[in-house]
Specification:
17 strands, 2 domains, Creatine Amidinohydrolase, alpha+beta, 14% strand, 494 residues, 16 helices, 36% helix, Creatine Amidinohydrolase, Chain A, domain 1, three-stranded antiparallel β-sheet
């Protein structure tokens, strides 16, 4: 890691390296000129104007401020990898690494809004930023776009970030001002100052914007669906690589970490990164729903629950779970639990169709789960009583989570949507959800027979609602236990 310099954003006086005047005169000379040909528009640019028009129509005559967010320091003089706020990415089409500190402003104009992207264009090579700024300088982090190049990429009018303050203040107090509050604390504070927030009205207005931006993503356009298909295809490649290396994961020890690394390699190679921290849970670890420590052994006879997804460069992510027999074959009791979960998942998938309620998917899946639990003598009440939320819920001891969530730019997409449009909402063509029932029998659960203890199984796929049913976007990966065993044998050459 190279040393930080005095003009860098995080000053470390004990490591400052001064630059001589002869160096300052020498460093700008002898570089090839920047390209004069403008880049082609991003693929998303054909779709983003419609999205901006939709959110603008919800807030006529108001100035809307959508920041990308700032860089976040790590280890004193480095930053975490940058990921823009999902609302910013959705409205601009800017994905991997773009564009720290940028702010999209939708300015009311006539019957609609005019969009301007305020960002840091590259500095000339005569500017100390070029060689001395470890956060933004070209010699440190690469060449950034000019104003014209960014405009060509995004189809947006572009302006220097230095002009943002004036743009936010223009015409106040006559123009209502809203901001995405959780994106950039500094921009949020500036908007609050300009509005002279003295009560909760500013936060309430911003919350309305956040909800609207979240609900805007409930239905995906054709380009978004294609990105999710690509994410699922890349995820299938990662899963296959894990299967191929399962014997090595067992041999090496600390096999969960090996699995996490193999999948992460393919996520970085085929996309931007993992869409969330991978769950690589062997044996009883599968019964910890968000097991991300991934430091356990994988042993012959165990099951591996792998919940992982590739986030492609546009930032759309898959979210897939398969529960795999480490030795390549399910034991009879593992197969019995697996088949119950698979039946529940298929019931949920069958319920995922336009006109159905989002909650219908969970209702269909959990009815199967409760029936099997009753047949196995685990439910202390009838299936009907357990499914009654006011009287029962006993089945939730063994499946405490919901069956579905929306999926897109965030693994739990549209999280700010209102309950009437999410949990109680109606499924429509273009929505993408997961279907992921499970059964989890903790090793410490003395209400289940010993042969079930330590078994945790989840099966998860990504589903796009179509005109007459649904499409399984992640269908490249087998689900049937016989097909899973055959797939493992084929991949491992057995």
């Amino acid at each position: 890691m190279s040393e930080q310099t005095p003009e860098a954003p995080i000053a470390l006086p004990n490591r400052q390296t001064p630059f001589s005047e002869p160096f300052r005169a020498f460093i700008p000379d002898g570089w090839a000129p920047y390209p004069t040909e403008l880049p082609q528009p991003l693929a998303a640019t054909a779709w983003t104007a419609v999205r901006r028009d939709s959110i603008g129509a919800a807030f006529p005559g108001e100035r809307l401020v959508i920041p990308a967010g700032p860089l976040r320091p790590r280890s004193n003089d480095t930053d975490y990898p940058f990921r823009p706020h999902s609302a910013f990415a959705h409205l601009t089409g800017l994905g991997t690494d773009r564009e720290p500190d940028a702010v999209l402003v939708l300015e009311p104009s006539g019957a609609g809004h005019e969009a301007t992207l305020y960002f840091r264009p590259r500095a000339p090579r005569t500017d100390p930023e070029f060689y001395a700024d470890a956060r933004y300088g070209e010699m440190w982090v690469g060449t950034r776009e000019s104003l014209d190049e960014m405009a060509a990429l995004t189809g947006l009018a572009c302006a220097p970030l230095a002009d943002l303050s004036g743009a936010l203040a223009a015409g106040l107090p006559g123009v209502a001002l809203r901001v995405v509050q959780d994106a950039d604390d500094a921009v949020t504070a500036e908007v609050a100052r300009l509005r002279n927030d003295a009560d909760a009205s500013g936060k309430a207005a911003d919350d309305e914007l956040a909800v609207a931006l979240s609900e805007l993503r409930l239905t995906k356009d054709a380009w978004e669906l294609d990105q999710l298909r690509q994410a699922c295809a890349a995820t299938a490649t990662g899963f296959e690589a894990v299967v191929a290396d399962l014997p090595e994961a067992v041999r090496r020890g600390r096999g969960e970490r090996w699995v996490e690394g193999v999948f992460g390699l393919h996520a970085r190679h085929l996309g931007n990164a993992v869409g969330y921290d991978s769950i690589a849970a062997g044996a009883d670890h599968a019964n910890t729903l968000h097991w991300i420590r991934n430091d356990g052994e994988l042993a012959p006879g165990d099951l591996l629950l792998l919940d992982a997804g590739v986030e492609v460069d546009s930032l759309y992510t898959a979210d897939v779970t398969r529960t795999l027999p480490v030795s390549g074959r399910f034991s009879p009791v593992q197969r019995r639990v697996y088949l119950a979960v698979l039946e529940a998942q298929q019931a949920g998938i069958d319920a995922a169709r336009p006109g159905a309620r989002f909650s219908d998917v969970h209702t269909a899946a959990i009815a199967v789960i409760a029936r099997h639990l009753r047949e196995w003598g685990l439910l202390p009440v009838s299936v009907e009583e357990s499914l009654d939320p006011d009287r029962g819920g006993h089945h939730r001891r063994w499946m405490v989570h919901g069956t579905s969530h929306h999926l897109g730019l965030d693994v739990h997409d549209c999280a700010r949507a209102r309950q009437e449009n999410y949990r109680d909402g109606v499924l429509a063509e273009g929505m993408v959800i997961t279907v992921e029932p499970g059964l989890y029998f903790k090793a410490t659960d003395q209400l289940v027979p010993p042969e079930l203890r330590g078994i945790g199984i989840r099966i998860e796929d990504d589903i796009a609602i179509t005109a007459d049913g649904c499409e399984i976007l992640s269908g490249q990966l087998p689900r049937d236990p016989d097909a899973v065993e055959a797939w493992i044998a084929s991949v491992q050459g057995r």
